[in-house]
Amino acid sequence: MLLKFRKNLLLINTLFFLAYSAVLQADECGVLRYMANKSTGVTVKNNSCKLTGDIAVGSEFNLTPGARLWFKSQDAADAQKMQGICQNRSSKPIRISVDTDKLPWINPTGLANCSPWTHNKINCDDSTGAQKTFTCVIAAINSEAPTNEIEERTTSVRLRSLPATDDADDAATGQERIISAMQADVDLCKAIDRANTTINITWLVESNGRVKTVTPDPSGPAERPLVDCLTAVINDFPYPKSAQAVRLSHQF
Length: 252
What we know:
This protein is α+β, with helices and mostly antiparallel strands.
């Protein structure tokens, strides 16, 4: 009887430990979301999360030279949703560790002369002494407007009217709503690239809601990092489907 009781107690303790570990892991995996569609040159290591895109405390982002990392905070009913972008301008790879479940979550490792996080921004020099070769910026964004509300704010009816409509005001309103919805991402691109110039970009959205081409104005300033960042934003935006392809143009 005593042996059976001990076995049952051991089983209960084991089940409790497994349940607690699962809850703990779920908690840790609610830290960040890695935005792979907009990121370039980034790999993730030491991530214990099972779901694609979920990032746990203890994970590490590896950025190749020229790489750009996009991430955002996980959903939280009682917290402001945040989004971040990091740029590696160094000629060497850079490692970023996810150290905590609190803002700013991440810290670069192995870099010299990093500024403290100020107004959710950090700059670092690399090991060769080159200045401001690494920058991260974090900013608040609207809670899931790009995925839930955009189809209401930029419906297929609006998109169908853009290419050839008798109502120019209606067409302009449709495009303005799209630009407004992606403005938070655009602001991050300009902040990370310290851009003071404007760039005119034209892009074609196919009827299935996917972007086919993105064409910056060749006569504009050659801000390649900014163009690449804006192109990623344009390509990743959740356009609704429409009856025909739609060409949009905007000066960012």
